[in-house]
Amino acid sequence: MTAQIDFIVSGFLINWDLQMFHGAISFTVHSTEVAGFKEFLQTINPLSDYRDGFLQEVWEQAFDCSFPKPGLQEMHSRQCTGEMKLEDLPGPAFEMEMTGQSYSIYNAVYSVAHALQDLYMLGFSRKTTTMRKKTDLPNLQSWQLHSFLQGISFNNSAGERVFLNEKGEATGGFDITNLITFPNRSFQRVKVGKMDLKAPKGKELLIGEDVIVWHTVFNQVLPLSRCNDPCFCGSWKKGIEGNQFCCYDCVPCPEGKISNQNGG
């Protein structure tokens, strides 16, 4: 599966039988566990900040409930309450782990923060020596950050190094994930490899084949690409007209010819 299809599993396929995805392998946008993220999700409550329309939409879709909206006719559905917790939702409806898409945004925000810090410190130094006045950040234009984003490098709170090249581009990469489903409609994503574009040539793709869990329909036995047994010594393969190329008859070798091995 592609990273996009894998992401859809978490949302639109809530009512589907997840067993069909058991053992699936996907390239997912790289992510890792960020300290405090689960605890943050556990504290979210849209009722504490009624102005956050995004959180209210998340609640209505995830919990199949509705918030009262002034000027609109009341819907005949259950009301969203503060007792509803994201951690109580089934896995297919909402994951408590940070997705690869969110992890990319997380790193992007911190990259901009580091660039702003560098710009601020540079402006502060210049203004201090000339006008004794700090940089006016509220009037900052976005293009002024471009040069500060180029080549930026720092370690994020997850302990991973974030690096932007000379063009201000993040070095990409993918996790190779094995999706394992369970009868109670829960699932687990297990990282079984990665694609690291910064790795030495020939080692960009790493897969731990021994840890992959396959779907039960796969017998993991290599298929036989022939219709019959190989020919023995003294005979050769003669194709059967009208049949597949792997089907043949074993006929004796012509006079003056020999075959000293099987499959000749």
Describe the structure.
- The chain is of the alpha+beta class.
- Helices cover 22% and strands 16% of the residues.
- The protein contains 5 helices and 8 strands; from the N terminus they run H-E-H-H-H-H-E-E-E-E-E-E-E.
- The strands form 3 sheets. Strands 1-4-5-6 form a 4-stranded antiparallel β-sheet. Strands 2-3 form a two-stranded antiparallel sheet. Strands 7-8 form a two-stranded antiparallel ribbon.
- Strand 4 and strand 5 form a beta hairpin.
- It starts with a helix and ends in a 12-residue tail after the last strand.
- The relative contact order is 0.13.
Gross morphology: flat
The radius of gyration over CA amounts to 30 Å
| Whole-number mean pLDDT | 78
Q: Tally the helices: what do you get?
A: 5
Enumerate the spans where pLDDT stays under 50 for 5 or more consecutive residues.
Answer: 128-135
Number of E-state strands: 8
Biggest β-sheet: count, sense, barrel? 4 strands, antiparallel
The percent of residues in helical segments reads: 10-25%
Beta-strand share of residues: 15-25%
**How are the strands ordered across the major sheet?**
1-4-5-6
Which secondary-structure class do the elements indicate? alpha+beta
N-to-C series of helices and strands: HEHHHHEEEEEEE
The quaternary structure here is single chain
Distance between the termini: 40 Å
Protein name: Extracellular calcium-sensing receptor-like
Pfam families: ANF_receptor (PF01094), NCD3G (PF07562)
Main location: membrane
InterPro entries: ANF_lig-bd_rcpt, GPCR_3_9-Cys_dom, GPCR_3_9-Cys_sf, GPCR_3_Ca_sens_rcpt-rel, Peripla_BP_I
